[in-house]
Amino acid sequence: MPNGYVLFEGDYAMKTTAVNITEKEYLLPGNRTCPGCALSLAYRYILKALEGQVIVTVPASCLTVLHGMYPVTSVTVPCVNTPFATTAASATGLVAGLKALGKEGLTVLAVAGDGGTHDIGIQALSAAAERQTDFLYICYDNEGYMNTGNQRSGSTPLGAISGTTPIVGKQQNQKDIAAIMEAHGIPYVATANASYPLDLYEKVRKAKMIRGTRFIHVFVPCSPGWGFPFSETIKIGRLAVETGWVILYEVEDGVFRLTSASESIAEKSNLKPLREYLVEQGRFKNITEEQIGILQRWVNARWKRCLDRAGDSQS
Amino acid sequence: MNKKIARKADTWILDGNRAAAQGAKLSRVQVIAAYPITPQSPVTERLSEFVEKRELDAQYIAVESEHSALAVCTSASMVGARTFTATSSHGLAYMHEMLHWAAGARLPVVLACVNRAIGAPWNVLNDQQDSVSQRDTGWIQVYARNNQEILDSIIQAYRIAESIYVPVMVCYDGYVLSHTEMPVDVPSQEAVDRFLPRYKPHTILDPANPKNYNLVTLANPRINAEGVLCHGYMELRYLLQEALQNSRETIVKVGQEFGELFGRSYASMFWEDRLDDADVVIVAMGSLAMEAIVAADMLREGGHKVGVLGLRVFRPFPKAELARALEKSRLVVIFDKNISYGLEGATCSEIKSALYGSPARAVIRDFIVGLGGRDVKAREMADAVKRSLLSVNEGDLNREYAEWICAI
Hints:
- The structure holds 2 protein chains of 2 kinds.
- Chain A is an alpha/beta fold.
- Chain A has helices at 38-50, 62-67, 87-100, 114-119, 122-130, 177-182, 197-208, 223-226, 233-242, 260-268, 275-278, 289-314, and strands at residues 54-58, 79-81, 107-113, 136-141, 188-193, 214-219, 249-252, 255-258.
- Chain A has one domain: 3-Layer(aba) Sandwich (Rossmann fold), CATH 3.40.50.
- In chain A, strands 2-1-3-4-6-5-7-8 form an 8-stranded mixed β-sheet, with helices on both faces.
- Chain A is globular.
- The termini of chain A are far apart.
- The model of chain A is unreliable at 1-12 (pLDDT under 50).
- Chain B is an alpha/beta fold.
- Chain B has helices spanning 3-7, 16-26, 41-52, 66-78, 89-94, 96-104, 129-132, 147-164, 189-195, 233-262, 288-301, 319-325, 346-355, 378-393; strands at 10-14, 31-34, 59-62, 83-87, 110-115, 140-143, 168-173, 182-186, 212-213, 222-223, 229-230, 270-273, 280-285, 306-311, 313-315, 331-336, 363-368, 403-404.
- In chain B, strand 6, helix 8 and strand 7 (168-173) form a beta-alpha-beta unit.
- In chain B, helix 2 packs across helix 3, helix 8 (147-164) packs across helix 10 and helix 11 (288-301) packs across helix 14 (378-393).
- The radius of gyration of chain B is 22 Å and the shape is globular.
- Classes of the chains: A alpha/beta, B alpha/beta.
- The interface between A and B is large, with 46 and 47 residues.
- Strand 2 of chain A pairs parallel with strand 9 (212-213) of chain B, so a sheet runs across the interface.
């Protein structure tokens, strides 16, 4: 049993704390990510939750950079790099190959960015989910093509400046990838945020024990891409949740549940105005009042839907 | 094993697609991923039928695209499974990125390409533009001339691919072979098992021995954590080229062993018909070369000493072997079911490059034929050879471009 490991199979409901989380590291220090990288933090906890019993497939993305350059790598788990559009198809191949060879007990983990998920990879992902492929797909969302220098993606918010929306900012809002995946009727969909690593850890632990396609959407603020000091990553991630830009929830077999900070915000009804989140970031420097209004209404509507669903689940 | 037993096979009446599916089944493929496209679809239907009937113990993945089909195969191959896919035309073009990836990662995937024209405009009939366009992806390319060769080539493809870790594409003409029935000797499973051992992967993804494959690799060699200098990107590419160069030996050896066991030898990268006394040689690839035999018959009736060379392996290209085979010929007439726009047919370019610097002094003529399923008649081929002979006799030795057999 890994050092410091206290959770047991089937006992994932036990509250994870900073004390009882495994001390074993699968992501080695000194990787190639930028300072203050939220992905680096999230990935560390994802691998801890899977205890190394995993095969990872990764498309072109910041994670490719994190993994290092041949012949040196920063992870101690087996991994295959795969072309941009193929993440979920690659995972399908890993699952099929393991099954054909009678190898059991491994989690096939696909990890892709929002470009690789919302945009170029959505066809393969949707198909893998429709085929009920037994794998865990984690989208780490930094709301743009950050690895290629910050171009707009299907996840970049309305009003955000990027390399390909350089002056007036993006004119469309992001798509709700978790809702899209939920519409596939898969057994587990969750959102998470690198600023809440224990919530992320517990969700990965839970997803690990579910069979079928599991999808976790992880919010990872990007200091160089979004224009905030790299010391502020955790704060930005928290502000995203506190203002409702990100809502932490899980949907297990169709049952919706708010988790972690979002659950307590719902209890206390103390959602902050979205403006507090936007003003901290250079990418929103040219956002108009009208756009802020549109985004606030979008947040309000989604928050209300989540509260309604959470209420429905309880009643 | 007793060779008589191995040679005892059932003769079935099979179209090319069924022959391909039988070849994959006899090769005990473990993961199949495919997407339907005309005229390949019956291959995938037969294979899924084998799996559903439990006649074949394999994972059949009905993917949403050809790009994903090959991505499934490459990743399944990386955990140690024997993989198969089949496609045509646009499907192969859509796979282009993954073709490079499979070869670059040195994965012994086998792919059946049912040759079909490529758009625009839409056309579902046969030519070889699809696979010829993929010649620089690092795959071995084999072209079958009949349905027996389709089945035999797929079984051999796994032996070749898995001994040198290079993927193999087995190509056969859409409709001309894929939907045409002919007698095919189907060997017993026992005999094929003797010929084709289990796949021993060179890379396996396993947490017990974690490795990170296809990482970003710099152009120059780089030192690993133990201080050992490891290959750069350039060295890895050299090794792939070296493998393709050396694969000629493997292909011939495997073809010879196949012949010893099953009575049908493939100990050459091309086949010859009446080359011994020929001063004119017709060259073609796939089923077209069979039509060339009929053309040669006609020409021989008219007193011309004509032979046929049917190109079976297009990559690696059998340069030296071809130069030797064509050494005595005065005129080589090539028929290409493809065109490298702005130049000529691909087979023609390759043969010219094979003959350069060799003792062969043949005049080369290239004819573009049969695009988009245009019927290629033996009579037309014979006429083209006669026209070429006439013009050569009149001193017209070099043509800048290929001639087209069409209405313009």
